[in-house]
């Protein structure tokens, strides 16, 4: 038993170590000009006396395509800067040399490049999940405009729709996220809106801040460098769709989607299929990526056909994977995707839109249904079915046995059609927030603690339920949310085909729940003081 516990602790350290950057002083393990360096699953970085060099590992279809080298220099900077390491890391390491000798480099948690520009230091340290954090520390009275970063070796520099910078590489890209920029004024963090701007050569970036910088206080510019990946087979005959994503217990990334490819004979042929590799056409598929997104570590066909989009996923505490499908199917897979543990509908519904997990036994699902057996909703906060379809929220147990069953179910809706239902558990798992898209109508349950008592056209119905094993007697919150126009539905024309959908998102912390959707209203409640107070059109 002691050995098993010790092995478990060692395994946990190893798992965490894959998401940590350590800076090694060069003792012969790097090329001669490197002062310090680090290695992670994405590749490596060397810190030189006047540049940084990224060696980004590139893979395609599981095949190693070597490395793409990107050099980062700082135009106008001081040459031969001083590199000052922080305290030594508790991690120890050694390298065996060719003729039997061993080197033991000193290892540090972070580095500071002093006076890259006069009065401007660059601090390097490990961020979340192995991302590289680099803070520009600008002394008081120093002009931040002198900071420039030149990149050389990438295929292109692209700005994405959110304003982040993408270093376009052959296969796996490097993202530089818009920095958090701030000054500490009288103990309070004053934030500045920041953007990154490329020059005419599209190789050199500089920062633009909005607002007045206080010359009597230091300034911190704090971007994050992350790695990302494309997700297809680089061929015109191959279509890949991703509908849901979830983070596993060891920070793996699970992706649920559709593919029309027989993966075992072409795409990712080097990664063994899990439960099934047989593709019968366009079919639902699940992938597992490593924490940095640089390799697919497991995949499986699901046995669900083209009409079964994996709408949402969840990960049980023991690592099993829960998938809810757009036609109502629920599946449970092992963490390595090698076995399908459950494949059915505990009770018949039209669609699953969202799932939330309480523990290894209990989970919730929400979606739409064309009426349920009366016994299922008996005593529910909303036990009345009306209209064509109704939203539902269901609590299931016995998931660990492989045969989940429903504990209780409630409708959420009125006498018109409900089209979509999203749910979210609070972090302490004491409450369940929800958002339902409805076509309108009347005969809704009595509103409780409402923020909007008026319904007009398509609308969102939002609320909170107590999370409990017994059927809750009432909603804790039930409210409309919308203006005089339509909310939650969307119609557009793509390639000559009219596409309609209804959706909403909900997330919550311990005190608030947050709703996201779309609106045609110009008079949404509560927009005063918001980032955007007027409808920009659609």
Description:
With 538 residues, the chain is mainly β. The strands form 8 sheets. It has a 17-stranded antiparallel β-sheet that branches. The N and C termini lie far apart (61 Å). Residues 13-18 have low confidence and may be disordered.
Q: What distance separates the N and C termini?
A: 61 Å
Poorly predicted tracts of residues: 13-18
pLDDT averaged residue by residue: 88
Q: Mind describing the biggest β-sheet?
A: 17 strands, antiparallel
**Portion in helices:** under 10%
Secondary-structure class: mainly beta
Give me the Rg, rounded. 27 Å
Q: How much β-strand is present in the residues? A: over 45%
Number of strands: 39
The general outline is: globular
Number of helices: 2
Which key terms come to mind for this protein?
538 residues; mainly beta; 17-stranded antiparallel sheet; four-stranded antiparallel sheet; 2 helices; 46% strand
């Amino acid at each position: 038993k002691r050995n098993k516990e010790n092995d478990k602790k060692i395994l946990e350290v190893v798992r965490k170590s894959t998401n940590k950057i350590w800076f090694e002083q060069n003792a012969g393990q790097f090329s001669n000009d490197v002062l310090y360096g680090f290695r992670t699953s994405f590749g490596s970085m060397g810190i030189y006396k006047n540049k940084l060099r990224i060696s980004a590992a590139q893979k395609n279809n599981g095949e190693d395509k070597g490395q793409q080298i990107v050099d980062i220099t700082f135009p106008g900077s001081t040459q031969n800067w001083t590199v000052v390491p922080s305290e030594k890391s508790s991690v120890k390491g050694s390298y065996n040399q060719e003729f039997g000798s061993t080197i033991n480099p000193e290892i540090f948690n972070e580095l500071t490049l002093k006076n890259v520009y006069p009065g401007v230091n660059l601090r390097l340290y490990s961020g979340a999940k192995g991302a590289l954090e680099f803070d520009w520390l600008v002394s008081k009275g120093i002009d931040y405009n002198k900071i420039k970063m030149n990149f050389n070796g990438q295929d292109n520099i692209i700005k994405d729709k959110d304003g982040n910078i993408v270093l376009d590489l052959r296969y796996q890209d490097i993202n530089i996220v818009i920095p958090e920029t701030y000054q500490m004024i009288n103990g309070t963090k004053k934030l500045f809106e920041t953007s990154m701007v490329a020059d005419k050569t599209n190789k050199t970036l500089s920062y633009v801040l909005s607002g007045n910088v206080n010359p009597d206080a230091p300034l911190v510019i704090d971007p994050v460098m992350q790695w990302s990946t494309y997700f297809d087979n680089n061929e015109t005959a191959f279509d890949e769709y991703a509908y849901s994503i979830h983070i596993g217990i060891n920070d793996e990334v699970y992706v649920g989607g559709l593919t029309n490819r027989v993966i075992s004979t072409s795409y990712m042929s080097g990664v063994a299929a899990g439960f099934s590799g047989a593709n019968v056409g366009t079919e639902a598929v699940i992938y597992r990526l490593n924490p940095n997104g640089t390799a697919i570590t497991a995949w499986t066909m699901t046995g669900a056909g083209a009409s079964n989009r994996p709408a949402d996923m969840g990960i049980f505490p023991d690592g099993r994977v829960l998938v809810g499908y757009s036609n109502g199917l629920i599946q449970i897979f092992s963490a390595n995707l090698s076995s399908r543990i459950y494949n059915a509908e505990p009770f018949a519904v039209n669609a699953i839109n969202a799932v939330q997990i309480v523990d290894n036994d209990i989970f919730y699902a929400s979606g739409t249904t064309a009426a349920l057996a009366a016994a299922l909703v008996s005593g529910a906060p909303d036990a009345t079915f009306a209209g064509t379809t109704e939203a539902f929220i269901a609590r299931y147990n016995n998931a660990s046995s492989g045969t989940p069953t429903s504990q209780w179910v409630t409708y959420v809706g009125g006498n018109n059609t409900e089209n979509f239902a999203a749910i979210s558990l609070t972090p302490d798992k004491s409450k369940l927030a929800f958002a339902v898209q409805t076509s309108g109508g009347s005969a809704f349950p009595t509103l409780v603690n409402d923020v909007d008592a008026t319904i007009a056209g398509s609308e969102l119905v939002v609320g909170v339920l107590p999370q409990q094993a017994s059927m809750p007697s009432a909603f804790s919150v039930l409210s409309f949310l919308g203006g005089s126009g339509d909310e939650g539905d969307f119609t557009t024309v793509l390639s000559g085909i009219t596409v309609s959908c209804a959706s909403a998102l909900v997330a919550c912390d311990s005190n608030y729940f947050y709703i996201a959707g779309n609106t045609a209203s110009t008079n949404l409640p509560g927009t005063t003081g918001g980032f955007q107070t007027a409808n920009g059109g659609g």
